[in-house]
Prior knowledge:
The chain has 180 residues and is of the alpha+beta class. It has helices at 2-14, 22-35, and strands at 47-50, 53-61, 69-78, 84-91, 94-104, 110-114, 119-121, 126-129, 135-141, 150-157, 161-170.
Amino acid sequence: MCNSVRGAARVASDARPFSGFRPIGAAVLGLSLLMLPALGQPLLAQDFKVGAIEVGHPWSRATPAGARVAAGYLAIRNTGPQPDRLVSVTGEIAGRAEIHEMAVDDKGVMTMRPLADGLEIPAGGEAELKPGGYHIMFLDLKQGVKEGDAFKGTLTFEKAGAVEVEYTVEAMAGGSGHGG
C-alpha cells in the first residue's frame, strides 16, 4: 500500500513538470504585456482620447531665440463609424494657433496654408500631422520652447468635442523649424 501512495504522489508531481518555473514565467509574461503598448512608439509618447478620437504623441520642435512661430505634430485615429473633423487648436505658448497644410504646387513650389474648414479624420481612419505635411502652427509665440519642455494645448473636434493634450518638445531641426 505504501508503494501505491508513493506512486500516486510521483504521478501527481509529474503532471506539473515546470511548476517550479511558474513565478518566473508569470513575471516574464506580465512584463511582456506591459511593454506591448510601447512597441513601435517612442518611449515618451503620450496618448489622449475623446469619444472615438485617439490622439497619439503630440510634439513640437525647440525654437530658436526670437522665433514668432512654432509647429505641432501628432497622430489622430478615428475608431468610430462616422468621419470627424479637427476644427480648432490652441497652445498655451501662442497667441493663436491654426491647422495648416504644406504642399508642393504644380510648379514645384512648396506652399503652406491654413485649412479654413479644418482637417477631416475618416471613419475608421487616421491622419498624421507631421513635418512637410499637415501640422499645427502656433503663431504669435508668448515664449520660445526648448528641448525637454512640455506645453498644453486643446484640440477641438466637430463631433467628439475638445481634448486637452500635452506637447513634448524635441530637438530643434535645421531649416524653417515648422516644415522639416
